[in-house]
Amino acid sequence: MTDAMEETRRDALARLVMWLAAVPAAGLAAFMGVRFLQPPRRQRLIPVVAARAVELPRDAALQVDGILGYRLVLRRERDRILAFSTVCPHLGCTVSWQETTREFLCPCHAGRFDAAGTPVAGPVDAPLRRFTARQQGELIVVELPAAEEG
Q1: Does 120 lie in the same domain as 67?
Q2: How confident is the model over 90-113, as a mean pLDDT?
Q3: What is the mean pLDDT of residues 97-113?
Q4: Considering the domain boundaries, does residue 123 fall inside one?
Q5: Which residues pair with 140 in a beta bridge?
Q6: How many CA atoms lie within 13 A of 33 on its CB side?
Q7: Mapped to the 3 state alphabet, what secondary structure does 17-32 carry?
Q8: What distance in Å separates the CA atoms of residue 150 and residue 137, rounded to the nearest whole number?
Q9: Beta bridge partners of 136
Q10: HSE on the CB side for 65, CA within 13 Å?
Q11: Residues contacting 149, CB < 8 A, separation 6+
């Protein structure tokens, strides 16, 4: 074999390896580009009966467990109903509503949240997750995401 033929084989092999790497990389880049340009998906909310209205008197709180896997604290404040997740955004500990101080307390690192779920003490830097809640007749309905996303 001559050197010219050997160089041609090497060139052909190099081109083949280059294309074998470039085609999947280009496909991945195109897929990622399309996903980036698509608008974000809207989360599907499901209206769920959380309690009966008589269970939540004015200026009171009620803890509700096991609704689509969520643990909630419902609070009736004046003419509106507030629904909060009991999961602390810091480390995922369970917060509880303290009626005497009118705040949420996280036992893990002494995190405290005011009545609106805003952090006021401790290492917490994000508010408690809130959900839309309303009274429909004699029932309290909370709109929850169809599947927990973390």
Answers
A1: yes
A2: 88
A3: 88
A4: yes
A5: 51, 135
A6: 6
A7: HHHHHHHHHHHHHHHH
A8: 32
A9: 139
A10: 3
A11: 43
Residues forming beta bridges with residue 80, ordered by sequence position: 77
CA pair distance 81, 145, nearest whole angstrom: 18
The answer to whether residue 150 sits within a structural domain is no
The predicted-structure confidence for 42-84, as pLDDT tens digits, reads as follows: 777 778 888 888 888 887 888 888 777 788 988 888 788 889 9
How many structural domains is the chain composed of?
A: 2
Identify residue 51 by its one-letter amino acid code: A
* Nearest CA among 73, 118, 125 for reference residue 94: 73
> Hey, which of 3-12, 47-56, 60-69, 122-131 has the most confident mean pLDDT?
122-131
What does the pLDDT read at residue 149?
A: 46
**Token pair recorded at residue 112:** 């405290």
Take residue 101 and report the two structure tokens written for it. 């101080």
DSSP bridge partners of 105: 96, 112
Cα gap 8→10, rounded to integer Å: 5
- Asked if residue 105 belongs to a domain, the reply is yes
Domain ranges, residue 1: 1-38
- Residue 49 makes CB contacts below 8 A (sequence gap 6+) with 139, 140, 141
Say which residues have a Cβ less than 8 Å from residue 42's Cβ, sequence separation at least 6.
none
**Matching residue, tokens 């959380």:** 50
